[in-house]
Design a protein that fits this description.
Helix content is about 40%, strand content about 25%. With about 350 residues, the chain is of the alpha+beta class. Among the domains are: about 100 residues, Elongation Factor Tu (Ef-tu), domain 3 (Beta Barrel); about 70 residues, RNA polymerase II/Efflux pump adaptor protein, barrel-sandwich hybrid domain (OB fold (Dihydrolipoamide Acetyltransferase, E2P)), CATH 2.40.50; about 70 residues, Helix Hairpins (Orthogonal Bundle), CATH 1.10.287. It has a 6-stranded antiparallel β-barrel with strand order 1-12-16-14-13-17. Strands 6-5-3-8-9-10 form a 6-stranded antiparallel sheet, with no helix packed on it. The chain has a 4-stranded antiparallel sheet with strand order 2-11-7-4, with no helix packed on it. Strand 9 and strand 10 form a beta hairpin.
Length: about 350
Amino acid sequence: MRNKIIFGLVILGALGALGSAYVYAVPGKPLPPVFNPAPDPYAQGIYANGIIESFQSSGENINIYPEVPGSIVRVLVAEGQSVTQGTPLVQIDDTVQRATAEQQKSQAEAAQALLGELRAQPRKENLEVARAQVEMAQASLKTAQDALDKQQSSYKLDPESVSKDAFDNAINAQKVAKANLEVVTRQYELTKAGAWVFDIKNQEKQAEALGKAYAASSALLAKYTIKAPTDGIVMSVNAPVGSYVSPQGAYDTYTQGFGPIVVMGTPKGRLDVRCYIDEILIPRLPPADKLQAQMFIRGTTTKIPLEFVRVQPYVSPKIQLSNQRQEKVDLRVLPVIFSFEPPPGVQVFPGELVDVYIGAKG
C-alpha cells in the first residue's frame, strides 16, 4: 500500500512538471515599448548619445570654483536666475582675511605718515629750538670771552693781581663755550637740512612695500565673494550655506567627489548638443563641411535639426553619463558639437540626454 502511494505521488509530480513546462514554453505577448525608439533618418546614419549644454563658443558650461577655502555664509542667487557679469553669487566667510587686510591697511597708512613726516622736515618748532640753543651758546661764549679778557687785562697791569688758577679757569671756560657753540651750530645746520635723503628713500620703499601688501591682501579679500564671470543663467548651486568649499570645489554627497560650487550657462536661447562618437564609428564620420544631424528628444516624437559647430579633436574615455573619472570604461569617444534653437513649446534643459543621428549632406 505504501509503495502505491509513493508511486502515485511520483506520477502526479511528473504530470505537474510536464504541465508547467508546457505553460511556460508558450511564448507570451511582448509588452509595447514605453516610447518608440528614434528612427535613423539617414541611409547610413551614425547614432550617438548627446548631452544638451548651454551655447559656448568654446568649452562647455561655465564651472565656477573658489580660489580660497572657507565656509559659505551667504548664497546670493537662485537657480534659474539671470545674472550679469560681476554679480555676486556666493559669499565665503572672510572674517580672518578682512581683519588681516585692515591691519595691513593701518600699517601702510602709518608708513605713509612717517614718510610725510620725513619729507616735512625741518619742523619749524625744532628749528626754533636749535636756533635758540645757538644764540644761548653765543651768549655763553661772549660771557666767557669777556671774563677772560678782564683777567688778561688785569694780568698785564699787575701779574700779582690775578691768580694762576683763576686765569686758567677763565681760559678753559672760554674754550668750553667756544666748543659748545660749534656743537650747537652744527646741530642747527643738521636740523635745518631736514631728513637724510637715504632715510627718505628707505621709508619710501617701506611705504611702497606695505602698500603693495595691503593691495594684495585686499585682492585676496575680494576673492571671498564669488562673482559671475560673464552674463548668463545660474543653472545649479552646489554649495548651500554652512558647507565648506575649497579650490577643489564642493563635496557632492551623491557622487562622493568634488565639483563646481556654481554652474552657469549662457542666456536663454541657442543651446549646444555635445555628441560622443564611438571610436569605431569615427572612420564613418563625414567631413565637417558635409555634416548634418538631427536630435530626437527621448519619450517624444519631437525631432530637431542641428547645426554643426565644431569637432573637439581629442578622443577621450566615455565618462559623460556620470562625469566621474573613477568610472570604469573601455570605450573612447570623439566629441562633436552641434547647436540648435529650441522650437516653441518644446522644453529642453542643459544636462538632458538626447538621441542624435549624424549623416552626410547629399
